[in-house]
Amino acid sequence: MQEYIDRKFRPDRRPPVSANTIHDNAAIVGIGQTAYTRNSERDELDMACEAIRNAVADAGLTMADIDGLEAFTLERTSMPTLVGALGIQNLRFSSEISYGGGAACANIMQAAAAVTTGVANYVVCYRSLNEASGHRYGRGDGYATYLSEAPTLHYGYYFPFGLLTPLSWASMYGRRWMHEFDVDPDDIGWYSVVLRENANRNPNAIFYDKPITIDDYRASQMIVEPLRLFDCCVDTDGAAAVIVTTAERAKDLKQTPAYILAAAQASTPESEIQTSYNRTPMSGLPDTWYVGQELYRVAGVGPQDIDVAELYDPFSLGGILQLEELGFCERGEGAAFCRGGDNIRVGGKIPINTSGGLLSEAYIHGYNLIIEAVRQMRGTSTSQVEGAELTLVTGGPGLPTSGMILRK
Fold first, then answer.
1. How far, CA to CA in Å, does 95 sit from each of 79, 84, 107, 159, 273?
2. Which of 34, 205, 245, 282 could hold 249 in an S-S bridge, CB 3.0 to 4.6 Å?
3. 3-state DSSP call for residue 243?
């Protein structure tokens, strides 16, 4: 942790880039999703099948080609049932990642490792959830169920004091960050406004054609101080899937590949699931910082080279703090960097969450961000960044997390 506090990464602790078999040797070749809604009236298995079939068709493959599956440990579909429902002939590889939203890019990393080492040829990474109408993570009772599925004992120290939801946990370190750096609350609102602008160009977004202004943000309901209604991600029903294969196979497929230049995971000492209050500094995201350092090292680039950032934002502060940890601005300057919105809009210094992000497009545990990153590399986004060559994607902030850099 000292290197994080000193902001000095020690690359000598890692093997050289040439030893990383993922680097530029794997690609995302298919993307698929369902409609994003507030009440799907379907089960997660049905939605997962639709998203995966759409991804397979998008890649120009058949289900007979698929021999790998990657998912969250939180996934409520059964892999054997899914294999049967899809007609996959022989599942040679399967894996699951924990840490909730921190798993988003880790799934892609595992899939890339599988295809580049020959364990599988085509791996589907997917997420399906009825977050709005069913199993809700934003409610205390939702997390009580979660605890019975994946015990995380540290919550026993927080639940008795009323810290029952992710938003309440985030408000603790968010408030500390605002205190340390004398953050103007109005500056935070610009993050939400810009993402809503992006969503208003995206017909797939939950908040398509529903603009907000900075005055609307200021007037929105306070949920858990300092986070208002428009700081919160949108509960969503839906599914999304991507297909990973080798760079060599990708050349012969239907779509323009999005090559995986780097992928990384990180978990630091005293890291908990969004309640890491006992480490120094409490107001930072060291797991994200380490992921960023490793991504830049393996990819051979820096933050100045990134054209688009798709940042996992279950709440606005999570996205803003990642701007700092990933080097797009200095520590403590994230809110001021967002002031007025121009730095983070398309055409700005670092366009972010161009489909609307988790706040305004959908909350599919970050998979919609991965799909949007691929669209940016294909040139098909509804908020396309002109000449985009590199897109950075992250997993959830404030917990063991992951990230990746895609190239055109």
1. 10, 17, 8, 31, 21
2. 245
3. strand
Cβ contact 310:240 at 8 Å: no
Q: How far apart are CA 143 and CA 146, in angstroms?
A: 5
Place of tokens 């950075």: 392
Count Cβ atoms within 10 A of the Cβ of residue 306 and give its class: 0-12 exposed, 13-18 middle, 19 or more buried.
buried
Q: Which of 380, 378, 336, 328 is nearest to 352 (CA)?
A: 328
Q: Can you tell me the distance from the alpha carbon of 240 to that of 284, in angstroms, rounded to the nearest whole number?
A: 30
Percent of the chain exceeding pLDDT 90 equals 76
Tokens for 333? 């300057």
Smallest Cα–Cα separation from 211: which of 360, 364, 372?
Answer: 360
Task: Identify the active-site residue in 143, 259, 290, 312.
Answer: 312
β-strand partners of 309: 352, 392
End-to-end CA distance of the chain: 34
Structure tokens at 276: 């890491």
Residue 286 carries which side chain, given as an amino acid letter? P
For 20-51, write each residue's pLDDT tens digit: 689 999 999 999 999 999 999 999 999 999 99
**Exposure pattern of 111-149 as b/e (b: 16+ CB <10 Å)?**
bbbbbbeeebbbbbbbbbbbbbeebbbbeeebbeebeee
User: Annotated catalytic residue: which of 4, 155, 191, 363?
Assistant: 363
In sequence order, what are the beta bridge partners of 228? 222
Active site residue 312: yes
The CA distances from residue 192 to 43, 121, 205, 403, in Å, are 30, 40, 14, 22
Distance (Å, whole) CA 402 – CA 405 = 11
Catalytic annotation on 363? yes
pLDDT digits (tens, 9 = 90+) for 197-217: 999 999 999 999 999 999 999
